[in-house]
Amino acid sequence: MAKRMGYLPNETPPLGQNILLGFQHVLTMFPATVFVAALTGFHIGTVLLASGVSTIVALLLSKRGIGKFIPLFYGSSFSYIAAYLAVANAMTGSLPAFGVPVADEVLSTMQAGIVVTGLLNIAVGFIIRAVGKDKLDNILPPVVTGSVAAIIGFGLAFAALNLAGANWTVSILTLLLTVIFSVYLQGRGFVGMLPILLGGVAGYLISAVVDPGSVSLAGVSSQPWFALPHLTFPVFSGAFVGTAIFSIAIMAIATIPESTAHLYQISLYVDRFAVEQKKEKYELDKHIGFNLILDGIGDFLNGLVGATAGTNYGENNSLMAITRNYSGPALMMAGFIAILLGFVGKLQAIVASVPLAVSGGLAIYLFGVIGMQGIALMQEHKVNMFEPRNLAVGAIIMVLGIGGNIGFDGGFLPIPIFQSVFPSGLPAIATAAVLGILVNLLFVVVKPPEG
Predict the structure, then answer these.
(1) Which band of pLDDT confidence, cut at 50, 70 and 90, is reported for residue 10?
(2) Of 231, 246, 416, 429, which is most buried by a Cβ count within 10 Å?
(3) Does the residue 9 lie in any domain?
(4) Are 321 and 10 in contact (CB under 8 A)?
(5) Do 323 and 4 meet the contact criterion of CB atoms below 8 Å apart?
(6) Are strands 412-413 and 74-76 parallel, antiparallel or unpaired?
(7) CA 317 to CA 296: how far, in whole Å?
(8) How many angstroms separate the CA atoms of 356 and 362, rounded?
(9) Quick check: is 8 in a domain?
């Protein structure tokens, strides 16, 4: 029987294939990465530039560090959206307009949190390498990480509905079509990897028909084809820097298990394909700590230039599983293509022309999926919800995080402590995460009775 076509991480496809495979990776990561940037007020060109750079740096460091590529693509993480919106709202009094970047002062403040997020991931990576993942799981068990992931998604529910309110007809149709694409195109090849992009395009066309005034391409023609990405640098001073660092950095709690799961996933796929090819297994899952260090370096670099915090993308993992293309050099090609897209001046204007109602329809689905993935994480790890300690930790995180983020202005709890650091109040989601960790630690230190 002939060997099935595909590439292992250290294998390099011919140049023509490499370019096409790299472009396919970029198409897969593009909708989600650009959506996060447009929704939260970051410059799209800068985010694409940083996404490509962090991917290439991680691949080069993995090859140098362990002798093999860890085939992962880094794009914007959804876990930090609520934190970005909270900081922007606190500093400006309103949420960012979709596709319109916030002021440099706001970006620089948020960058401080992203840089610290990178340092936190690096520290956790070294801890795991030193003591093992099991020890970390005592501090961040699935009931904590799953609940935090859930409140990130559900805590954004009102923001999604606000966007949808621009035109409910367009939003609902966009939502329904995106869901249909997600469900019925699954397993249909490459097109099945692009439900968000397809839903956005369909919503755009619907909006042009239903509400012609909502679509305008006037801003696109005025932008040049070539433009340097807009770079900003982190600032660690100012009234809101403490809020930014606390709100943003603590969200690494949600991305650490996400990144670990993605590494396990890609390691399984790669090793199975290696066995089929009668070649040595790569056993990438032995390098969890090192992979988190690479995540942290990527976030650190993103924070230095003005891009969103990142994560390795499950969408690209799924694409690799479908195509059997696990090539590190193909991912490096994707990184170079993402960098080139960062210099396309018209790109941000095109994204900014997407009607708010279309963004709202996509946001209802995407934010809901984030929340459901938190629940799925707890199901996967068989968290016992009949046990009082798990109920206590989950209840605290859920109520403080969701209620606080939706019920109070900007998602800040009006608790009058540490006002010099948190002038708007304590960020609800970050506070919920920290309190959940502390309560869980109490149960680790003082063991509850069994049964």
Answers:
(1) very high
(2) 429
(3) no
(4) no
(5) no
(6) unpaired
(7) 19
(8) 10
(9) no
Q: Looking at the chain, how many residues does it have?
A: 451
* Angle at the Cα of 395 from the Cα atoms of 392 and 427, rounded to 5 degrees: 120
> Can you read off the two tokens belonging to residue 20?
């096409």
Kindly state whether residue 97 falls inside one of the protein's structural domains: yes
Domain residues for 390? 15-445
> What pLDDT band is residue 387 in, cutting at 50, 70 and 90?
very high
Among 367, 341, 325, 295, smallest CA distance to 74 is for 295
For residue 13, give the nearest of 391, 403, 334 by alpha carbon: 334
User: Angle, nearest 10°, between helix axes 15-40 and 44-66?
Assistant: 130
Asked whether the beta carbons of 216 and 353 are under 8 A apart, the reply is yes
Please enumerate in sequence order all residues whose Cβ is within 8 A of that of 120, keeping only pairs 6 or more positions apart, or say none. Answer: 249, 252, 296
Give the alpha-carbon dihedral of 343, 348, 351, 355, to 10 degrees. -170
> Is residue 390 in a domain?
yes
Structural domains counted in the chain: 1
User: How confident is the model over 209-240, as pLDDT tens digits?
Assistant: 998 888 887 778 888 889 999 999 999 999 99
Residue 383 has phi, psi (to 5 degrees) of -65, 125
Mean pLDDT of 79-83: 89
Half-sphere exposure of 292 (CA within 13 A, CB side): 29
Burial of 450 (0-12, 13-18, 19+ CB in 10 A): exposed
Is the model's pLDDT at 315 over the cut of 80? Answer: no
Closest CA to 51 of 244, 337, 264, 292: 337
